[in-house]
Amino acid sequence: MPINQMTSKQSSLFRSFLINLFKTSKCSTRFASTSKFSIDVYSLNKCQMEFNSGAGGVEAALFTNELVEMYRLFSERNGWKWIPFEIDRIKSSTTGVRSAIVSIEGECCYAKLRFEGGVHRVQRTPITDKTRIHTSTSSIAILPEPETPELVIQPGDLRKETMRSSGAGGANVNANSTAVRLTHIPTGISVKAQDERYLQVNEKLAHKRLSAILLKRQIDQINSKYSGTRKLQVGSSERSEKFGHLIIKIIVL
Q: Can you name the CATH fold of 45-145?
């Protein structure tokens, strides 16, 4: 029944139902399971966001910076902790961002942000050219971060390499190997961290980053499996499509 056709009593009951629903269901309770572990991924209190500027050049980088700032403010309003891993800014502009990786910690942050991933697009008139409308894109990826990375990464599956950092950091990074690259041997996925001044901190960041990528990969595999199972049952709903049928013969004595 449409809301505008409800009686006052029905409207009051419906409003009470919605209020109780939001109070009792803070997070979804769907589970993702693999042969190694079972985690309620949608109630995780940690996640990572990837920002990458797409088509549009400097305008796309400016748009990406606006997205980073928007989600930072959204995190603050939700009481979440915003931890930048890596931010690659355009040298000629302090407000342009090519790419960024941020860790977010807070209650049910992944459940609230998981649908924000994808390509975001903006159309606007650039400051440099008022005669045309410029289209810019920026992509966002949301990765769940496990509370205990050891459930995702087995110690024997890691290969660690240390090297000199190519970023800023003064004499410490020039004299010591502070950058680290972790490689997950079974999948070949590798992650490098070099933004911090000390090797131990970079190694911890790389470990968190790699565990999030692997967990997202396993979740995607599970979802793909379930989608395939549903496709087998539903099909494409074309007229020419038909499924096996069963004939039941009832004999009345």
A: Alpha-Beta Plaits (3.30.70)
Alpha-helical (H) ranges within 25-96 are 58-77
pLDDT value for 80: 93
pLDDT of residue 54: 85
- On the question of a common fold for 45-145 and 151-220, the answer reads no
What are the residues whose beta carbons fall under 8 Å from the beta carbon of 62, sequence distance 6 or more? 93, 95, 96, 136
Class of domain 151-220: alpha beta
Calculate the CA 65 to chain-centre distance.
Answer: 18
State the burial class of residue 87 (Cβ atoms within 10 Å of its Cβ: 0-12, 13-18, 19+). middle
Instruction: Read off the pTM.
Output: 0.58
Domain parsing of the chain, residue ranges: 45-145, 151-220
Query: What's the rounded Cα separation, in Å, for the pair 104 and 51?
Result: 13
Highest-confidence segment of 74-83, 127-136, 177-186: 74-83
Report the distance separating Cα 207 and Cα 189, nearest Å: 12
Sign of the dihedral defined by the CA atoms of residues 56, 100, 118, 215, in that order? positive
Q: What is the pLDDT of residue 73?
A: 93
Secondary structure of residue 120 in the 3-state scheme: strand
